[in-house]
Amino acid sequence: MRWGLIGASTIASEHMIGAIRAAGGEVASVLSSSTDRAESYAAEHDIPVGVSDLDALLDGDIDAVYISTTNEKHFAQAMAAIAAGKHVLCEKPLAMTVADAAAMVRAAADAGLTFGTNHHLRNAGSHLAMRDLVQSGRIGDVLSVRVFHAVYLPLHLQGWRIDNPEAGGGVIPDIAVHDADTVRFHLGEDPAEVVAMQTASGLGQGVEDSVMSVWAMPSGVQVLTHESFTHRFTSSGFEVHGTKGSIVAKNVMTQRPVGEITLRTEAGEEDIPFETHNLYARSLGLFHDAANGKGRPSADGVDGVKSLAVAAAVAKAAKSGQRTSVDYAGV
Question: Which of 54, 150, 222, 310 is the most exposed place for a label (fewest CB within 10 A)?
Answer without folding.
Answer: 222
